[in-house]
Prior knowledge:
Blueprint: E1 8-13, E2 20-22, E3 29-31, H1 37-40, E4 50-55, H2 67-80, E5 86-90, H3 96-106, E6 107-108, E7 114-117, H4 130-142, E8 155-159, E9 162-165, E10 170-171, E11 180-181, E12 189-191, E13 195-197, E14 212-213, E15 221-225, H5 232-239, E16 246-251, H6 261-272, E17 276-281, H7 294-301, E18 305-306, H8 312-324, H9 329-336
Parallel strand pairs: 1-4, 1-5, 5-7, 7-8, 15-16, 16-17, 17-18
Antiparallel strand pairs: 2-3, 6-14, 8-9, 9-12, 10-11, 12-13
Bound molecules: aspartic acid (ASP).
Amino acid sequence: MLPNSCPSVLLIYTGGTIGMIENPETGALENFNFDHLLKHVPELKRFNYRISSYQFNPPIDSSDMEPAFWAKLVKIIHYNYNQFDGFVILHGTDTMAYTASALSFMLENLAKPVILTGSQLPIGVLRTDGKENLITAIEIAAAKNEKGEPMVPEVCIFFENILMRGNRTTKINAENFNAFRSFNYPALAHAGIHIKYEEHLFLKPDLARPLKPHYLFDTNVVILSLFPGIREQTVSSILHVEGLKAVVLRTFGSGNAPQKEWFIHLLKEATERGITIVNITQCASGAVEMERYETGYHLLEAGVISGYDSTPESAVTKLMFLLGHGLDSEEIRKRMNTPLAGEITKSTKKNF
Ligand code: ASP
């Protein structure tokens, strides 16, 4: 029996590759029963931690992830917040960056680690990356700083030895073990022989403020990715989708778009109808600077706002989150331009 003072971690299994094992008789991949976690990952016994688990029933492939499941995760974390030092969420890799972004906005005043991880190979496969990811994620979730406070007070993704701010990540590889990157914000920690934390990069929550969970989302949003030759009718149809409230516009380079009159007119007409249009770049790395080229200026004049260096995952979940709270378009524009959980860097000169 472990003393109450030992570190405690709640493991939440939502589904995905990590939680599968090979049936030794049939060879088929089956969902893992987390009640038997210690049997399959005996290494966990070597932690002097109290590890409890919660399993989605049935587990879901992360392609089926929905705001209702994000709300369920927030409910579980809120309900157990005072009983655990940290939380590890096992999640399919396909939409992990969306979930991490959404949770970062939903868990206001978060002061404890919420670490998402998964794997490219199931935990029951010999060459799995799942065990390393799981074991290190648990260690990070339990880690304390010199003052005895949680080391990582934010929502992160830990994958292939790198800890990243969740709302800065993107899945970049469907094959290799290093499946995630945070292009516009440095890694928060590297796991080698030691886990090296970059404490100066973490969010600094006010520890006196209680966790404030949020649950509401409005999915009347769309991501519109530009390409040379995009048709007027296509853009017009998207901007006239019934009930549409916001658009993540994925533009070229540092935020540039065609200068055609019909295009600017359609955007202007949409912003005048109260639709928020946020400009982010299609490039994996770097930020939008609408003042830089004339093409960007036309967008500003049409009422499009800058998404700075936001990932698409973060921009779209933040819009759904803000819209879910019934804010008007002026307030949404203001908040899209203010970092809520370290998701954007407004200055182009980065002082990391
Ligand atoms: N399709 C799986 C999922 O995202 C892939 C994975 O787990 O890596 O749930």
